[in-house]
Specification:
Two copies of one chain form a homodimer. In chain A, the strands form two sheets. Chain A has a five-stranded parallel sheet, with helices on both faces. In chain A, strands 6-7-10-8-9 form a five-stranded mixed sheet, with helices on both faces. The first copy, chain A, is of the alpha/beta class and 252 residues long. In chain A, strand 6, helix 6 and strand 7 form a beta-alpha-beta unit. Chain A folds into two domains: 139 residues, Cobalt-precorrin-4 Transmethylase, domain 1; 106 residues, Methyltransferase, Cobalt-precorrin-4 Transmethylase, Domain 2, CATH 3.30.950. The first copy, chain A, is globular, with a radius of gyration of 19 Å. At the A-B interface, helix 1, strand 5, helix 5, strand 6 and helix 6 of A face helix 1, strand 5, helix 5, strand 6 and helix 6 of B.
Chain lengths: 252, 252
């Protein structure tokens, strides 16, 4: 029997890992480790360092190259579908090579939590395994580390908050009925386009890592500073992962 | 110098605790443990069992009784304010008794994550400590354990989701512009009042604990079953903590 463990590893800080995640990693017969053809080699290194830190032998790690997503055409949903199919085929090739008996525990390390803006569950569903053989281990998400680092609450008392993406914020503006937004997956500095007055921003990049950066303040006052710092850091590291919370002022 | 650690301990399952949380608990000179005058004694027991599990000596634990919130009048915000003040005074009395030098590391164990629908940060702010002396340690939240247990993603691809409360759902109905809701703090089965057609519900109670219950299905088909199971479990245990995700059907 094949068991697939999708394991949230938090933000790259080994201290953010749970015991459940640690046990799942240590109990795995094989760890599938993706490599990307971009400037994020540092991220693969963080995962490798985590495995080393936990004492996982290198012989248990199966490296594979992530396929590229077709970026031509305006059929975004199809592109994503094809891409997930292609990734699932890489997994299967890797499993066939390393677990030819088709039996064993396979671990995939997921940044943050597999439930949050991550494709691993959807790719896993393509393997046709019964649900009981796919196990999800929650991990600390970047929105939690953001709030922890700034010492703030996600929500105002009894109030809702919306978790959304940079694209949604650009396309639809500030949503109705909510004073707090968490914006993820924003490669395009969408906060610059927020026209609301009196909004506070709590921004963080490389959360949980040694190079963590935090900035906060009234959006109108600090937006330019965040963009400059962001560009500089991205240049220096070759990549950036950031997230922010926006809150109408005077709410807490 | 006094340092206050607000530590997310997840859902009561010791395996959900992070290394950071474990280290913060083990490094504390004092753990403040609240007791409530209601049927939730079992919850204090879970925290005590966790401390024991981690090897924290009983002499480090300061027990205190939670004050009651005034429930008369329609000034809810004032009631909460007064109540937080009263809790802060209990903390201070406990600190004066157990750490008379005013120096040391104090830990408070918070269900889930201190950033999410929890008052500990707001109570801590009443102690007048400099921000650097209040440290927040993120923990796995019930919404993550809910998704992990059901094997589902929080969000549809690239789409937002709203985290809200039972009261908000009752008072304002299904919010505009979002197909996925996480509903917390719902003691009143507000899902029964959702009039939307074709909504899926993923419900969980006592998440991460031995008595965990999961139900899912088309809301119109399973709402009554959930309410019955909920009443039965609440009766049996004397308390219940539950949470659910609602998603318009056909989205994933």
């Amino acid at each position: 029997m094949l068991e697939l463990f999708l394991i949230g590893i938090g933000t790259g800080n080994p201290d953010h890992i749970t015991r459940e995640a640690e046990n799942a990693i240590l109990g795995a017969d094989l760890v599938l480790l993706p490599h990307k053809e971009d400037n994020k080699a540092e991220l693969a290194q963080v995962r490798l360092a985590l495995l080393q830190h936990l004492g996982v032998g290198g012989y248990k790690v199966a490296h594979f190259d992530m396929p590229l997503r077709r970026q031509t055409g305006d059929d975004y949903d199809n592109q994503v579908d094809e891409w997930h199919d292609a990734i699932a085929r890489r997994w299967q090739a890797s499993l066939a090579a390393h677990l030819p008996s088709g039996t064993g525990r396979v671990a995939l390390l997921v940044w943050g939590d597999p439930a949050l803006y991550d494709s691993t569950l959807r790719i896993a569903s393509r393997l046709g395994l019964p649900p009981a053989q796919v196990r999800v281990v929650p991990g600390i998400t970047s929105m939690q580390v953001l709030c922890s680092a700034h010492g703030i609450a996600l929500n105002e008392i009894g109030a809702p908050f919306l978790v959304t993406t940079g694209r949604q914020l650009r396309d639809h503006g500030w949503p109705a009925g909510v004073d707090t937004l968490i914006v993820m997956l924003d490669g395009q500095r969408s906060y610059e386009q927020v026209s609301e007055q009196d909004v506070e921003i709590y921004w963080g990049a490389y959360l949980g890592m040694a190079q963590q950066i935090l900035l906060r303040g009234r959006l109108a006052d600090v937006a330019a500073q965040i963009s400059a710092r962001r560009a500089q850091a991205r240049q220096a590291h070759g990549w950036i992962m950031d997230i922010y919370l926006l809150r109408r002022s005077g709410r807490r």
